[in-house]
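Duplicate of earlier report; MBL fold metallo-hydrolase input re-posted below.
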Amino acid sequence: MTDDATPDPGPAGSGSAPDASPAEGDPVADSPEPGTAGSLTPAALAVWLDAGREFTLLDTRNRDEIDAWRIEAPRRLDVPYMRFLSARVTGDVEALVGGAEGPFVAVCPRGEASAEVADLLADAGHEAYNLAGGMYGWARLYEATELPTDATGDATVVQYRRPSSGCLAYLVVAGDEAAVVDPLRTFADRYVTDAADRGADLVAAVDTHVHADHVSGVRAVADRASAGAVLPVGAVDRGLAFDARSLAPGETLTVGGVGLAAVAAPGHTTGMLALRVGDCLLTGDSLFVDGVARPDLEVADAAVREFARTLHGTLTERFGGLDGGLLVAPGHYASEDAVVDGRVTARLGDLRERLPSLSLDREPFVERVLSGMGPRPANHETIIAVNLGRETAGAEAAFELELGPNNCAATAD
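Output:
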């Protein structure tokens, strides 16, 4: 599909309306309009980032908030909101941004404080915009782009991309049926609507593994669409506490006459599956276009090294026997550099050539992975429990749990 979330690249662009839980409303619509400055929607900001436009992102949040989660931009300037309040009194706003080049895009949690800052900059003669909805609005931006048909064969595969966290999901449509792979709970309604717009009923909601970085939408989609929830058989072994079809390596999930073949891909988790659709491989959190998975989100530290060895076997043996022409469509990406023409994909053969990790022997691979892991995803233990159905979280709580980067990669290669 042409991306129904492709915005006008200018400040007035709106793109698709962000999905929102009932508890949160629509942060973009609720964001105050600046007075003299412009307003930039999250969708328009994504276009600026994808196009490599030069601007300065002015983050007005506190340091701990920025360190936990931020928008990467060509130029960044971090100045707390309280300093602008003081500068408004002294008339010394210019000193806070002295030397930085505009245009400026001001950011705060919900677009309120940053609207004031953007106006101060505009009044001082700068080209300035407020990010409507702030970081909460940014977290609700969800873009969709169709993958090339030369890889997906008889199915249409739509890739969903959440720029705020790097999460990717997929809608597989064949005939009058559809399946969603690795859905996010926040956007459950979106998948159902998009399938219907393509004349298809959602018959399956699939997770490639038990996620640790975001709240799964499998059960929410299943409820909304009367679809079947599908998880790897390994999820059952981890204590899955709700009814779902278990999918084992070598089995095939059929959607509209097209098979989604389950390929064993353990290492990130014990039960990780990749799904092959035509010549497209949905790799979940095993292989990314800019790195490989981390092996420490399921087990205690003592077992992490063995999980890393298992991951090496997945990437070099299980995937090693696959054709290099396969299109890899992963579950995450680490930076906007991975986005090309609105998609995050790469041919398997190209990844073998450009990712150093894939050419290492087992023990050097293990050392590289273990030395490259950053912080675990925020709230990962609670998110895992929610995704297994062993704990519950309302819509607002689920949204708050997953805010921030996914951190599922071991290291970018």
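The mean pLDDT is 90.

Merging into the original ticket.
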